Amino acid sequence: MILHARQYWALTKPRIVALIVFTALIGMLMAVPAVPPLLPMIAGLAGIWLASASAAAINHLIDQRIDRVMARTAHRPLPTGQLSSRQVLMFALLLAVLSMAILLAWTNALTAVLSFAGLIGYAIVYTAWLKRATPQNIVIGGAAGAVPPVLGWTAMTGEVHAYALLLFLIVFIWTPPHFWALAIFRREDYARAMIPMLPVTHGVTYTRWHVLFYTLLLFAVTMLPWLTGMSGMFYLGGATVLGAVFIYYAVRLLNPPSERFAMVVFGYSIVYLMLLFGFLLVDHWLPGARFAVM
């Protein structure tokens, strides 16, 4: 395993998992009025990271056939033969077992159960079935990727609060415009792999309009933390500006200046989510913040 450390690290999809862990951390910090207890927080983040990394490794295992024919993924450890299917499976199972053990020992059973459900949702339901079954794959399957803020919340409180579900909803609605922007740019790859992504089955123009629709819906959803009293004016200002810029990009995507503009939208969507959650946290810690869970 040491000889293949880079290949095993690549199996965890570190950039994607880093974003997942970030949203889980914000969920933890939003769940309590002050800084959470250190041990449950570190254990929770470690367990969520391990579960997400396990799901990513299983995704590599199931997708190895299509990865071989897609330019974006042909360099991965399985298509290149750097790792075997058995090695990847054992690695994924090891991460999953460690994740459950850590979450059960230092957080709570609810967080462990929800983490396992998210792992199965992404690795099996989305990757093995939805991804190949419907062009709405990313809409339905996005639920698995939206779970981490809820996991962070439950790791600190042991319950699923309504505000945790608001964080879930934001990530859930954010996922389609984020991923469809990438799919527009990589549509030839998906077509070659016979994956029914929306720009492959319904065309680029249709997908661009869906990106705009979901971006407008996302703007409305991001107003809910303010409308429900979860957050205050600081968050509202930040969410409004970030959302307006996202809408601008989505409108411009309808008639883009270049083919690569879809990747500009994709890149902004990542920055958008990180800053939006950052505004939530800063607002939560501002003096006189209206939200208190405990």
Secondary-structure blueprint:
Elements: H1 5-11, H2 14-31, H3 38-62, H4 64-69, H5 85-106, H6 109-133, H7 137-146, H8 148-157, H9 162-185, H10 187-192, H11 198-201, H12 204-221, H13 224-227, H14 233-253, H15 261-285
Written account of the structure:
The chain has helices spanning 5-11, 14-31, 38-62, 64-69, 85-106, 109-133, 137-146, 148-157, 162-185, 187-192, 198-201, 204-221, 224-227, 233-253, 261-285. It is mainly alpha-helical and 294 residues long. The radius of gyration is 19 Å and the shape is flat.
| Biggest sheet architecture | none
Q: Give the overall shape.
A: flat
Structural class: mainly alpha
Total strands: the figure is 0
Uncertain stretches of 5 or more adjacent residues: none
Helix content: over 70%
Order of helices and strands: HHHHHHHHHHHHHHH
Beta-strand content estimate: under 5%
In short:
This protein has 294 residues and is mainly α. 77% of the residues lie in helices and 0% in strands. The radius of gyration is 19 Å and the shape is flat.
Keywords:
294 residues
